[in-house]
Amino acid sequence: MVRVAIIGASGYTGVESIEIILRHPQAEIAYLTALPDECEHVADTFGQLRGRLDMEIEPLDLDTLAAKADVALCCLPHKVSMGFVPKLLSTGVKVIDFSADYRIKDVDLYEKFYVPHTDRENLANAAYGLPELFREDIKQTNLVANPGCYPTGASLALAPLLKNGLIEPTGIIISSVTGVSGGGKNPCPIFHFPYMNENIYPYGVGVHRHMPEMEQVTSSVAGKDVTLLFQPHVGPFDRGIISSTYSDPTGDVTAEQLNALYNEFYADEPFVQIVTAPPAVKNVAKSNYCHIFPTVAKGKVVVFSVIDNLIKGASGQAIQNMNILFNLPETMGLE
Amino acid sequence: MVRVAIIGASGYTGVESIEIILRHPQAEIAYLTALPDECEHVADTFGQLRGRLDMEIEPLDLDTLAAKADVALCCLPHKVSMGFVPKLLSTGVKVIDFSADYRIKDVDLYEKFYVPHTDRENLANAAYGLPELFREDIKQTNLVANPGCYPTGASLALAPLLKNGLIEPTGIIISSVTGVSGGGKNPCPIFHFPYMNENIYPYGVGVHRHMPEMEQVTSSVAGKDVTLLFQPHVGPFDRGIISSTYSDPTGDVTAEQLNALYNEFYADEPFVQIVTAPPAVKNVAKSNYCHIFPTVAKGKVVVFSVIDNLIKGASGQAIQNMNILFNLPETMGLE
Amino acid sequence: MVRVAIIGASGYTGVESIEIILRHPQAEIAYLTALPDECEHVADTFGQLRGRLDMEIEPLDLDTLAAKADVALCCLPHKVSMGFVPKLLSTGVKVIDFSADYRIKDVDLYEKFYVPHTDRENLANAAYGLPELFREDIKQTNLVANPGCYPTGASLALAPLLKNGLIEPTGIIISSVTGVSGGGKNPCPIFHFPYMNENIYPYGVGVHRHMPEMEQVTSSVAGKDVTLLFQPHVGPFDRGIISSTYSDPTGDVTAEQLNALYNEFYADEPFVQIVTAPPAVKNVAKSNYCHIFPTVAKGKVVVFSVIDNLIKGASGQAIQNMNILFNLPETMGLE
Amino acid sequence: MVRVAIIGASGYTGVESIEIILRHPQAEIAYLTALPDECEHVADTFGQLRGRLDMEIEPLDLDTLAAKADVALCCLPHKVSMGFVPKLLSTGVKVIDFSADYRIKDVDLYEKFYVPHTDRENLANAAYGLPELFREDIKQTNLVANPGCYPTGASLALAPLLKNGLIEPTGIIISSVTGVSGGGKNPCPIFHFPYMNENIYPYGVGVHRHMPEMEQVTSSVAGKDVTLLFQPHVGPFDRGIISSTYSDPTGDVTAEQLNALYNEFYADEPFVQIVTAPPAVKNVAKSNYCHIFPTVAKGKVVVFSVIDNLIKGASGQAIQNMNILFNLPETMGLE
Known about the structure:
alpha/beta; 2 domains
């Protein structure tokens, strides 16, 4: 049994991770931590766990972590996480970090969108945890940077095109809509129900932090610099992301060719399904699947992908990474 | 033209009042006030007013109020309002108060559910602003206590029965579901979209402050003490309240008799519609109407009513009261 | 491995059952049937199964059923089911029937609310599949009548009171709100999104077919005739039912006593959780749990229960029953 | 008073038009028609009109139309409308047609996306009813082709850029999300609440009929051929459309310059508001306003627009056109 600690267990990615591990035949919840004033019985924080998990959320203690856990899912926010990850690693556990702190290899770029980086050493050794594209890196690390929700769906949508040079690496548009859980658990005016319901709006125009992350991933796949415009929107639903991508083909290509290409590219990937009609967010809700529909329209290559932002975009992908780290079947607990 | 000031204009009842008055042919927005740190252009507070109303929200100044307005809609919270209403009245304007502070005539009862009352003098002179039941009182006052949202729908549902002694005055159950706007504009965990969406839950079991208000109104109509259990729930929609009431008939009564009785009781009321099938909240959304369906089932009298909590349950009713105070046609601006 | 056939697999209870069985370590989907014009690959009917289950839905063939399956989940509609169940049983499989056809023991009562009953023989042998109340009956049958969604939540809420004589067996009010999936998969005007969204309404006043089912169950528990008024509403959410019950105590009783009683009554029941604050539908979404909050208010006993209408109210409960029929741990596949 | 007939009054655009006219000081509902089997009291079709409009919906009779009405709002579907419009015009009324039948001037293009056109004569004389861009044409016609919902928002977003040659006329991406009311009133699986809720999906990839309409309008404004890719999505809300447009600038341009340009371009347009932050669909719900936010990001010109699909995208714009046709203030009844 893999003994799992969740650091920062009081948020949405915490409870999603707990729910997956409760169904996982080879993993168990060993330790839950949060800030002292958020420490209480886990069923008081998450009513849906009542009767399912009898455990207190506790303040983080490194000795306890070392004694109880084999792996830590670090669900702390961006900028906070890099203050804790070195300590977690020092206890000997493997770490899967949900924040952006270890995702961007170019420190200057990280610092432009975030803050000065305080843990460059571990950053250099971290693997980017998108198994479909970087599985071999993940196998060889003890620190996985779990990808952002938007970059997961967008990168899976674009990778086959860029890997094969089928689209121009510039001028790519990624227009995404996320469910509100992507904004986290803290109440705020823009996610207050009477404002958010019956509403949809864009945000982060030209400045969203997932844009450089997407460029890094897609450039890595393409083997050359990719520039893209990522535009997120938030819509009135709990969970899910649809990413609609528009790009310019480098030559003639048909929808049938794209379908064949994508099926081949993802032939061995259990969680990527190539569909032949526009995908619906609801079909991947509460699952670790990504549905992708590649096609052409009006001279553009158009690819849609849908994921659950909290599962394939966060906690499910983390467990997928955990399975890789511990040599378990990659789909265990996720089907 | 009736010149209208809105005191505490930055909340939901403020903007609903503004929107109604913008369509009102004999009234105009003259003055908008809020706490100093909420003062800005009204279109910055309420994006839907952009291009429709060019006015600043300002800190309250009594001289300005006296100079600019004929009536003040006081949208301040319970307990706060009674600190301001005497000052507003002192300027000579009429006041329609949205809070609970002037609704409950029994000071002891008020103080049991709220706090010590600091303006008993005006309380004695205030009229309860439910025009269908207390129109004559409203005509003779300069201070209207605008009813609570739940008491409006529930009282209109039960009044014909109690007035005519058709149900027992005890053991009445009122089980209501409100939209989330009833909880106001301040973000909080229970109204955070990812919690509230796909959810419904009861609250205030046995202790909701609208229960004594309902008992006061229905007792007044019945001419004897009425006791009832009011149980509110909140559901995943913006606006509207359905109140499902269950009571014991004092004798034999049929659905047809009830339909005839209700049609007669409300024959001259433009905003009350008696329907012959279960009513839907959506049919009264954004309107000042109340739809009522009285019937019998399994030996109980069952009456359903639906209103828009922000219109008939707040701002629309306030304008209806304003029309009465200023001898305008009661439906003006509300159809 | 228990080999499971699903008869009438193309509806919501079909896919919910499939998803549970896919996670069940000791059961497997062996056979899926539907009407001929609804037969296609299961992932075409349910996009969320793409990549997860590679099976065709086929027209029902009894020999195939006999060869492939140990148990049939019969998801056919009321009135249709009793035409098939005898045939299913004749193949030797055990049957868990989701319709109302085998729930009501009083044939006259069944026929009053439905149609003439055509399979009285099996009706007599069927067990009512609410394990928390009728587990011993279930163990001894090969035909389980899976309970209705509303009766499940309401009966669990009221059983401890009626078993112990704490409330009067008459005049009980059950006011429930269901999510829209309870209305099934067929499009219709009242469940069309632009009508249903931002809406809530009652239906079936005094005539809902679950009312006699509830009376049968609660009378059985009470050991005497129970009469109640059940009033359903439908609200703008996918899944879940809240039942708010109001009844008259036979003597003095406190919330604390009720809490203790309920905890004792359900002490050994893994899927019933007694909570100490009003329960939220969202906390049981996608789970087989029922949360119950018993309390007192204004001289009434008030008990709230929440379930997922498609899980504890249908497919989850069916798997719970299946586990009992096959001597598996009752919670297997459901936690 | 302008006497208004509504032909095909039983759908969403019918009731929206009715509601606006009920508030319009210089117009009145004179005649409502529908197919014979949809004829009933208007309040039976639209429960929200109970007590507000006492009129029967009747089968269309041309003599009655001639006698009762000055203008007909023709709310019939595409392809059906052109069979009726010549008859309506023959009675002497002016016609505002909601269908696509008179929008596309290029008959070949119309016939490619729809069916053979049967009324080329009136097509030639119809004005495209987007007042902000074609007001003078509207003043001189008796047949207005009311624009499509998507083309309204998208054209208003792009017109200032194309008129001034600030963007390339090729490669424009318009990625839109509409509320479900855009799909009309007929129940169907993809708009069934349990499917549509918590969902979002694209449709009509490369083939949506509003794409050529957009190209016609924008080409007309640009004075040269414009080609664009329009990609619609449908999201879980009743009403509203957000269009996010991405295009390539022809030269250097800043967000500040765009803001100034747009403010100047729409300076005299009461219903177009230029905003300085991402717009929200909710801010234009139930209104005839269009909010536009032009900016630049990553080398692209990015412009967002939001409208209410049923108001500015249909019925409100029709009344705006009606006001023009009858020399009434253009905003009458719409503010």
